Each structure stands twice: as C-alpha cells, then as structure tokens.
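Tutorial handout. Part one gives the primary structure; part two gives the three-dimensional structure as tokens.
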Amino acid sequence: MILIVSILLYLILFFYLYILVMGVYRAYLSKKLNTFLFYICLPPVILGIIFDVLANIFIATFVFRRVPREWLVTTRLIKIQNNPLENIYNRAIAKYICNNMLDIFDPNGDHC
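Part two.
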C-alpha cells in the first residue's frame, strides 16, 4: 500500500513539474525569459528532467512491460504511438497520456 501511494505521489509531483517546465518553455518561446528568470527556473527544470528519466526507467517500464531504449517518457510515448507493430494496449495508454495530459499544457499544443 505504501508503495502504491508513493508511486502516485511521485507521478503527481512529476506532472506538476511537467506543467512548470512547460510554463518556462512558454516564457522562452515568447522571449520573456530573461537571464535572471532563466537561472531561477533552472533547478526545477533539472529536477523535472531527473524525475522524467526515473519515471521512464522504473514506472513506464512497468506500465509498458519493456525496458526503455530512450531517456525520456515523451520520447517513449512518441515511439509507441508511431509504431504500428506496437500492441493496442500500449498504443492506447500512450495516446491517452499524450492527448489528455501532456498536449494540453504544451505551448504548441502537440507535446507528443
């Protein structure tokens, strides 16, 4: 039970970090991210990358039932969605995560 709660809390924090990183990216794209803000935002962006790598190695490996060949969850989701030989279960999960969670907060609207 503690493991499940820990994983859920990790995923929630990971999602919040993703939203924060997309906000920083939005500021960068609009050319409003000055040097001072860049350095203030750098630690949570680095933490987000670390969370992403760890989630890909441990959690996504369990969900998609295979070890990763890429570093980030998004890269894995893109590969799964674009592979016609991928099983329907993995493609459905990847598509749901991209369409209903990630694309919404991406400044371009198309994260994966």
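Part three, for discussion. The radius of gyration is 15 Å. Residues 56 and 87 are 18 Å apart (CA to CA).
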